[in-house]
Amino acid sequence: MSFIRLNGVEKEYKTKRKQTDKRQRFCIRSIDLSIKKGEFFTLLGPSGCGKTTILKLVAGLLRPDRGDICIENKEVTRVPPEQRGVSMVFQEALLFPHMTVGENISFGLKMKKINKRERTERANDFLKLVGLEGMNLAYPSQLSGGQKQRVSLARALVTKPEILLMDEPFSALDPGTREEMRRLLKKLHRELDITILFVTHDREEAFELSDRVAVLKNGKILEVGMPKDLYERTDTVDVAEFLGLRNIYYGIVYEQKFSCDAFQLQLLNYEAIDVTKGWLVIRPETLSIQKDNINTETNSQYLQGTMMDISYKGSFYNLNVQVGNENLYIIQDTGTEFTFVKGGIVWIGIDSTKLHFIKEI
After folding, report:
1. pLDDT single digits (tens) 304-318
2. pTM > 0.85: yes or no
3. Taking a C-beta distance cutoff of 8 angstroms, is the pair 109, 161 a contact?
4. 322 in Cβ contact with 263 (< 8 Å)
């Protein structure tokens, strides 16, 4: 059952390039999107792909040129933001500098004519919820970046919205604080059972937080799915490339064999009668360097290559092996019993059941 639904939504507006001073059209094109109640849904894509525009359309900060937007089966396309039951958290905390933390959090309640005693109690409750108990009298200038975003999050949630919209809220924070905020947001989503529409360009962030993800490019949704499905079985080569799947090779499949200029591999899970063109995706973590080329597993295949680069990453190695005129990138556990030698000949073990072929359309 859809809680948030976008039907054929389009938005077009002009941008100006400083270099040429020529006007360009940018648009959201025929967006169809369905989000369930209580779902953590993420819009993922590079800068300028239209993620924030979709968020603002749902919030009511922009009005679509075509299509309609529904929340809980009610069309809200022309309903003002304050009547949509949504709250929004931006990249910057945007706190009132002359107000205390408590006053910032309770400001929305004040606009709703909630009495002062209840405002104070609810603000203190949400301060505790975001891990800032006892800081209600502090001012924004006394807070760190992470603390400011916690206050911003508490302010958005204290009015008990049905939908929380978040526009890259952690991108300006340092890595440690960003990880803390992710854990906090997951905890709050679980405890409050709120619907969250989240915008990010960070694949790791999207995968860690989301129930489902929509990957965007140039104002269009390429694919929607659960993080694991998108990473392991995407239907779109653009999605595979954006998700950082580096081993992507163009070739043909015939009689369950994929062939490209550098190698040939058996595809156990793909059947096609005719010659089929497309891309083979080999996830780096599914490959492994072997001591020899002895095939001891039914589903294993092997390729010979030359070790080109070795990078130590703590719990794993990043390896670059040249096979023919192509490079294979491998993630190998550091617990391996043998050492790698740059320039040495190696055998790469491949699990045939984890190969994924994307048919060219």
Report:
1. 999 999 998 888 889
2. yes
3. no
4. no
